[in-house]
């Protein structure tokens, strides 16, 4: 269905048209009218479904209408300009109307860029703030005036405590990728932020997956929310072909380099579980003659931005990422995602493979599963609600007996469980910024 029927301002429709969006995506169709009505929503939508426009467009619409109303009550002209948002004076805090909270700086950047793009024919001003970058630059941007603030929780709290921003007149708050926000342990920060918000406001929660923790959070946050599901709960992105290769750990790197080289893949996203694993794999693949880089939280923001640009521009053939670093990446042209290792948190699998098959394109997600990782594959299948057929890649068949025997000898089921729990906990700790 087209955007025209959704009740958005003409200037937003023009923007959408100029971006070449012909049809609203399912999450946009369902969310936009409800958000315009002022209701709270809980939407099950992952990155790649067009969810950013699903909340940014109606927010822009509302802020524009608000500005026009103010103008009209002033009896002034018909040009849409904000006469409430002014550059703030020295020591004065900036009044924010709409807030988008994101778990990572990459996603914050991404959402901010979308807000600027979708708002280019309006006078609504958006600003972004996240940790790991100079707060002074962000404060200077905010002081020029901001209607929409896209921020990570930690940096937002700093801005609240320093009285740079004032959220008392907030109209809308969006929790983007709420599942990841909780997974990264941001609940305490979120609770603190909530104390700075007015009682009456609209709350929009977007999450790729839903679990009990999200439902508990939503109860404390929302007022009779409308549930929006696009497709099934915890569903993988449409049009992503999932392949699973059973392979020995020791031969994974060889197969990845072989696939990229022999099939001439040009923009491949590879996931490892750890930062060290990402760096080691990048070094080895580089020796195989492939231009690759790793990206993770230990790299400076400058280095991450540079690597991302190189990857987007096609200078790098593969990007090796941890789950956190890859969150929020919006590179619609990625056609192959490789799970070099399956994630400990099986819901991350859905986020990972959602990096491909974006906005209606097709994509392939390949998972390399060693005999030791079979239990992780079972967890993934449980989340997906389907069995993934395992294949052997000719020339890379696993030597099943050897690994299985040595594994059984070394680890009982209980110790395996403990090791995994430990890994999930430590990954949560290291993910937090
Ligand atoms: P998102 O799920 O917000 O990360 O969006 C994924 C990609 O889909 C982005 O590159 C958007 O530019 C694109 N997109 C969003 N809405 C539409 C639409 N209605 N038609 C085509 N592409 C879209």
Describe this structure in words.
With 433 residues, the protein is an alpha/beta fold. It has two domains: 3-69 and 81-229, Rossmann fold (3-Layer(aba) Sandwich); 240-398, P-loop containing nucleotide triphosphate hydrolases (Rossmann fold, 3-Layer(aba) Sandwich). It contains 17 helices and 16 strands. It has helices spanning 10-18, 26-37, 51-74, 105-118, 135-143, 153-161, 178-183, 187-194, 212-221, 252-262, 275-287, 301-312, 323-326, 347-353, 374-384, 400-410, 413-431, and strands spanning 41-44, 94-95, 98-101, 126-129, 148-151, 165-166, 172-175, 202-207, 226-229, 240-246, 268-271, 292-295, 318-321, 336-339, 363-369, 390-391. The protein has a seven-stranded parallel β-sheet with strand order 4-5-3-7-8-1-9, sandwiched between helices. The longest helix is centred in the N-terminal third of the chain and has 24 residues, at 51-74. Mean pLDDT is 85; it is low at 73-83 and 403-412. It binds adenosine monophosphate. Adenosine monophosphate (AMP) binds at residues 21, 23-25, 28, 47-53, 330, 332, 358-359. Adenosine monophosphate binds at residues 21, 23-25, 28, 47-53, 330, 332, 358-359.
């Amino acid at each position: 269905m087209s955007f025209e029927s959704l009740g958005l301002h003409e200037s937003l429709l023009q923007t959408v048209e100029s971006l070449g969006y012909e049809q609203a995506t399912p999450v946009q169709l369902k969310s936009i009218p409800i958000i315009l009505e002022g209701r709270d929503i809980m939407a099950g939508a992952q990155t790649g479904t067009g969810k950013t426009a699903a909340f940014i467009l109606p927010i822009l619409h509302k802020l524009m209408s608000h500005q026009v109303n103010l103008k009209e009550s002033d009896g002034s002209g018909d040009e849409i300009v904000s006469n409430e948002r002014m550059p703030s004076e020295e020591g004065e805090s900036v009044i924010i109307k709409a807030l988008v909270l994101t778990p990572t700086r990459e996603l914050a950047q991404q959402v901010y860029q979308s807000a600027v793009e979708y708002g280019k024919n309006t006078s609504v001003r958006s600003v972004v703030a996240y940790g790991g970058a100079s707060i002074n630059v962000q404060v200077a941007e905010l002081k020029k005036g901001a209607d929409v603030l896209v921020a990570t929780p930690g940096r937002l709290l700093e801005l609240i405590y320093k009285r740079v921003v004032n959220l008392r007149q907030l109209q809308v708050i969006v929790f983007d990728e709420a599942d990841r926000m909780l997974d990264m342990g941001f609940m305490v920060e979120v609770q603190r932020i909530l104390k700075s918000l007015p009682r009456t406001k609209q709350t929009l929660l977007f999450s790729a997956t839903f679990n009990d923790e999200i439902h508990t959070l939503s109860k404390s946050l929302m007022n009779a929310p409308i549930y929006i599901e696009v497709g099934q709960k915890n569903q993988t992105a449409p049009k992503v072909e999932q392949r699973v290769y059973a392979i020995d750990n020791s031969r994974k790197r060889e197969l990845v380099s072989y696939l990229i080289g022999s099939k001439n893949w040009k923009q491949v996203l590879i996931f490892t579980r750890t930062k060290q694993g990402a760096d080691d794999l990048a070094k080895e693949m580089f020796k195989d003659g492939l231009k690759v880089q790793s990206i993770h939280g230990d790299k400076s923001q400058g280095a991450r931005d540079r690597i991302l640009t190189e990857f987007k521009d096609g200078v790098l053939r593969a990007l090796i990422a941890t789950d956190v670093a890859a969150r929020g990446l919006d590179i619609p042209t990625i056609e192959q995602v490789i799970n070099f290792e399956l994630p400990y948190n099986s819901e991350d699998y859905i986020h990972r493979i959602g990096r491909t098959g974006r906005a209606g394109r097709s994509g392939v997600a390949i998972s390399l599963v060693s005999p030791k990782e079979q239990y992780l594959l079972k967890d993934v299948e449980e989340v997906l609600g389907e069995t993934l057929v395992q294949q052997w890649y000719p020339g890379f068949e696993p030597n099943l007996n050897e690994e299985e025997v040595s594994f059984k000898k070394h680890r009982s089921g209980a110790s395996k469980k403990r090791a995994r729990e430990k890994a999930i906990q430590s990954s949560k700790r290291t993910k937090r910024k």
